[in-house]
Amino acid sequence: MAAQDNSDIEALIALMAKLPGLGPRSARRAVLHLIRKRALVLTPLADAIGRVAETARECLNCGNVGTSDICALCADETRANGELCVVEDVADLWAMERAGVFKGRYHVLGGTLSALDAVGPEDLRIPRLVDRVATEGVNEVILALNATIDGQTTAHYIADQLEGRVKLTSLAQGVPIGGELDYLDDGTISAALRARKEI
C-alpha cells in the first residue's frame, strides 16, 4: 500500500504554526478541527481568507487596515475633532476602538524606534504624522504607545518633533510598565485615556 501524501495538510499546519499564539502542536489541532468541520468552518474560512487577500489594504492616511484606500475611521467626518491618537500598530488601534472611548482619529506608526533592530525614524510613519499635524487641524496628539523602552523612546522622539506645534499628551494610569495595549482590557484602556497627561 502506497504511503499517503499529506504534503498539503503538512504545509497548512506549517503555515498555521507561523501565526501568533500558535505553535506546531496547536496548529496541528486547529488544522485537524478544520478538516473535521470542512463544510461548516474550513470552506467558509478559505473563502474569507481569499477575499481578504484580494481586498485588504493599508489606509493611505493613517495606516489602519481596511478594504479601501481611506479607512472608515478617516472618512468619518464626525471624528475630525482635532484629536489624533498615535499608536504603534493596527492591533493597538483596534484595542482602542474596542474600548469605545476615543472619538478622534488615529495614526499608526508601524512599529517603534529600536537601535537593536536598526529601526530609525525614517522606517516609521513619523514624517507622515508631522505632516498630518500641520495640515489636518490637529490640536492634540495623544501618544498611546506601549509602555516599553522602545515605546517610550519613540514617544520622546515624537514629542521632540512636535514640540511647540500641538498639545501633546500620553496615556497615564492603568497601563503597566512593560504592558502592551492589545493585551489590556477595555476598562484599563478607558481609564488610561481619561487620565492622560501633557508631556
UniProtKB/TrEMBL annotation:
Keywords of the record: DNA damage, DNA recombination, DNA repair, Metal-binding, Plasmid, Zinc, Zinc-finger
Gene Ontology molecular functions: DNA binding; zinc ion binding
UniProt-listed GO biological process terms: DNA recombination; DNA repair
Classification via Gene3D superfamilies: 3.40.1360.10, 6.10.250.240, RecR Domain 1 (1.10.8.420)
Zinc finger motifs (C4-type), residue ranges: 59-74
Domain Toprim: 82-176
SUPFAM superfamilies: Recombination protein RecR (SSF111304)
Top-level taxon: Bacteria
UniProt entry tagged with the keyword Transmembrane: no
PROSITE patterns to which the protein is assigned, alphabetical: TOPRIM (PS50880)
Pfam families per UniProt: RecR_C, RecR_HhH, RecR_ZnF, Toprim_4
Role noted for this protein: May play a role in DNA repair. It seems to be involved in an RecBC-independent recombinational process of DNA repair. It may act with RecF and RecO.
HAMAP family in alphabetical order: RecR (MF_00017)
Family classification: Belongs to the RecR family.
The protein's name in its UniProt record: Recombination protein RecR
Annotated source species: Tritonibacter mobilis F1926
Encoding gene (name): recR
